[in-house]
Design brief:
The chain is built from twelve helices and 13 strands. The chain is α/β, with parallel strands linked by helices. It has one domain (2-254): Metal-dependent hydrolases (TIM Barrel). It has a five-stranded parallel beta sheet. The protein has a three-stranded parallel beta sheet with strand order 1-2-5. Strand 1, helix 1 (14-25) and strand 2 (29-33) form a beta-alpha-beta unit.
Length: 325
């Protein structure tokens, strides 16, 4: 799981709380805190400090699971339109000084982002981030809806990984990333949900259907979908290098998802994607293994009282809503 956490009203210790939940469940996690200037300098300082604290904890103990690290760290940033030049410079310094892979940042989700960047600096969003030295092979750039051809070329040149969030983009009415254009330029694109759900397979189907609908062509979409799966595996390799995550092989890390979707036609190497996009769409997840250990087994979480957890979550939600009124 790659998480971009935000809780500007409760920054300190928030990544530790997310990390504890991942450890209790037994899943791999790369998380970071969404640093932003929109709530003032003190909150921006706290966000950078929280990213650094978590990165230091991960370096001290990567918490092996099945012979592979189960946690990783990067540095989180909100969008360019809520980040000052000073904060961008400090983020770059932290990445360099502490050997972080890069930054995880919202990029050009809405047209307001490039408009703000132009007003601030005379540069578009990607150009501004590049000037700050924040684009590279370890950069995750979420969205990239409102990018021009020069920015696409920059993304490819810097080997940035673009995270495509089709459901979130449609929900927010901001447009959609042109994945076909990005991939044609050599940009690695991966799948994300931006908090809409945990259904990454559903996001793959959304991306596939959006591509066909946008092109008004039922023949397209296959290449883009394959590229998104390959790109998602590349993100796993970025944070857990050499682990072979996303592969099914003898001696591999055994991070597996079992769908309750029996194939009614032959399931073979050259039609797996079709089975996923059509036969697997909406299929119930029966079991999940991480490092060879069951996280979910036949629809239940071993050692986890889900009913009690949901009851507690509902109570916490009501208390939070009451505070916000």
């Amino acid at each position: 799981m790659v998480d971009h956490h935000a809780s500007e009203g409760a920054v300190e210790g928030s990544l530790a709380a997310v990390d504890r939940a991942a450890a209790a469940l037994g899943v791999r996690l790369c998380t970071c805190f969404e640093t932003t200037d929109r709530d003032g300098a003190a909150v921006a300082d706290a966000g950078l400090a929280e990213n650094l604290r978590h990165a230091q904890e991960v370096r001290a103990d990567p918490r092996p699971l099945g012979g592979v690290a189960s946690r990783a760290a990067t540095l989180g940033l909100h969008a360019s339109l809520t980040l000052s030049d000073e904060t961008l410079a400090r983020a770059r310094a932290l990445v360099d000084e502490h050997g972080l892979p890069g930054v995880h940042v919202h990029v050009a989700e809405d047209r307001a982002d490039p408009e703000d960047a132009l007003a601030r600096s005379g540069l578009r969003t990607i150009e501004r981030l590049d000037r700050a030295g924040l684009l590279g092979p370890g950069t995750l750039a979420a969205h990239c809806v409102w990018v021009d051809d020069h920015e696409v070329a920059l993304l490819a040149e810097r080997s940035v990984k673009v995270i495509h969030n089709p459901s979130s983009n449609m929900n927010n009415g901001v447009g959609r990333a042109d994945v076909a254009r990005l991939q044609a330029a050599g940009v690695v694109c991966a799948l994300g949900s931006d908090g809409m759900s945990g259904d990454v397979l559903g996001e793959l189907a959304q991306a596939y259907l959006v591509r066909r609908d946008t092109a008004r062509d039922p023949r397209v979409g296959w290449d883009e979908a394959r590229g998104l799966l390959q790109g998602t595996r590349a993100v796993a390799e970025l944070f857990f290098p050499g682990a072979g995550l996303g592969t099914l092989r003898e001696g591999g890390p055994a991070d597996l998802v079992v769908l309750d979707s029996p194939p009614y036609t032959p399931l073979e190497g050259d039609n797996v994607l079709g089975h996923l996009l059509y036969g697997g769409l909406g299929a119930r997840v029966r079991s999940v293994l991480c490092g060879g250990r069951f996280v979910l087994r036949d629809g239940t979480f071993p050692g986890l009282d889900l009913a009690a957890l949901c009851q507690r979550a509902r109570a916490r939600a009501r208390a939070l809503w009451a505070r916000r009124r």
